[in-house]
Design a protein that fits this description.
By secondary structure, the protein is α+β, with helices and mostly antiparallel strands. It has two domains: 90 residues; 228 residues, BirA Bifunctional Protein, domain 2 (2-Layer Sandwich), CATH 3.30.930.10. It is 42% helix and 18% strand. The protein is built from twelve helices and nine strands. The strands form two sheets. The protein has a seven-stranded mixed beta sheet with strand order 1-4-5-9-8-7-6, with helices on both faces. A two-stranded antiparallel ribbon has the order 2-3. Strand 6 and strand 7 form a beta hairpin. Helix 2 packs antiparallel against helix 4, helix 3 packs antiparallel against helix 4 and helix 5 packs across helix 11. The longest helix is centred in the first third of the chain and has 43 residues. It binds 3,4-dihydroxyphenylalanine (DAH).
């Protein structure tokens, strides 16, 4: 830098500039300094403005000196800039030397199965081991299969219990229960057979912690000659022992009504979670587990099976309830929440 300047003011500006320049450690602070001193409204620009007000004599001496100062500042800035660039390149090269490719850890976020998938897999394993064939049924159903073939004609009060999502296409709906799969099974195979089907079902209901408009059910159906209620009792007991992995499970039978079975029953199971009463069994030691019964002759006929020759039993239970019970989930809406904090636990 051309130094010293004859003018005291310019000398102070030059000194201030140099002191500040020393503290600049990156391009950003260099730019700020550039704007402050050499910018359009910077210190040098102001000096030039002031120059206009001075006498001719003063202009002659001060003008060239200001120009010189400007050039000096520009040159110092450039010099510092290239020094900083070199420094940065050297630091980068140093960092590269220490770069360890083996230090890379791939993401540790693993996917896991949804609790519903766990339970469906377990149930299907148990049912398959008992000789049931596992079927899938459509979630979009015809009114005929979901209701009529299951002995629920139009205006039957049982339809009110299953508030239905109707499609805008005529006579199509979202199945309200997995019992519809019974009809598909009967129409596509010859007895004897035993099938089971787990899947989503839909009802047009307000949602709360215990109800959702989409939930899961599992259906079982066995058709053969001389099938009786005792076969049904033994099968459900064995099945429940299998899914709860517990020998000491008792079942209790209550008469009930479902249009597609006669007689219709409800099956309760002894609570597998406690000995003396807990929140799951509401301290009663019994848990309502499924609806069941002997397949109604109307339903057998609708499925193309002769009720004089064959009989069968069917059962259906709320899978979603079972999942919630098994994992102690207290709000049904978690199951569709897609919340990672929830899903990561399974
Ligand atoms: N479909 C009935 C429901 O959604 C459950 C049910 C009851 C299924 C009795 C059956 C049965 O197979 O026999 O509430």
């Amino acid at each position: 830098m051309t130094y010293p300047y004859t003018n005291e003011k310019l000398r102070i500006i030059a000194e201030q500039f140099l002191t500040r320049l020393k503290t600049c450690s990156d391009n950003k602070s260099l730019e700020a300094l550039d704007i402050e001193f050499l910018g359009r409204h910077g210190i040098i620009a102001k000096l030039m403005e002031e120059l206009k007000t001075l006498s001719l004599e003063e202009k002659r001496t001060l003008g060239p000196e200001i120009n010189l100062l400007k050039k000096d500042l520009q040159a110092s800035l450039l010099e510092k800039k290239s020094a900083l660039t070199q420094q940065e390149a050297a630091a980068h090269a140093e960092r590269q030397k220490l770069f360890d490719v083996t230090a890379y850890q791939p993401g540790e976020l693993f996917g896991s199965l949804h609790p519903a998938t766990h339970v469906v897999q377990e149930i299907e394993d148990v049912l398959m081991s008992m000789g049931f064939e596992i079927l899938d049924g459509p979630e979009i159903e015809t009114e005929e299969i979901n209701f009529e073939a299951l002995n629920i004609p139009k205006n039957h009060p049982a339809r009110d219990m299953q508030d239905t999502f109707w499609l805008t296409l005529p006579q199509l709906l979202l199945r309200t229960h997995t019992s519809s799969v019974e009809i598909h099974a009967m129409r596509s195979r010859q007895p004897p057979f035993a099938i089971a089907s787990a899947g989503r079902t839909y009802r047009h209901e307000a949602t709360d912690a215990c109800h959702d408009f989409v939930f899961m059910q599992c259906e079982g159906l066995l058709i053969d000659k001389k099938v009786s209620l005792s076969h049904l009792f033994a099968t459900t007991k064995l099945f429940l022992q299998g899914i709860f992995k517990k020998e000491q499970i008792e079942i209790r039978i209550r008469p009930s009504y479902f249009p597609f079975v006669e007689p219709g029953i409800e099956i309760d199971m002894s609570c597998p979670f406690c000995a003396k009463g807990c929140s799951v069994c509401k301290k009663s030691n019994w848990i309502e587990i499924c609806g069941a019964g002997m397949v109604h002759p109307h339903v057998l006929r609708a499925g193309g099976i002769n009720p004089e020759e064959y009989s069968g039993f069917a059962f259906g239970f709320g899978l979603t309830r079972l999942i919630m019970m098994k994992y102690g989930i207290n709000d049904i809406r978690y199951l569709h929440s897609n919340k990672l904090e929830f899903l990561k636990q399974f």
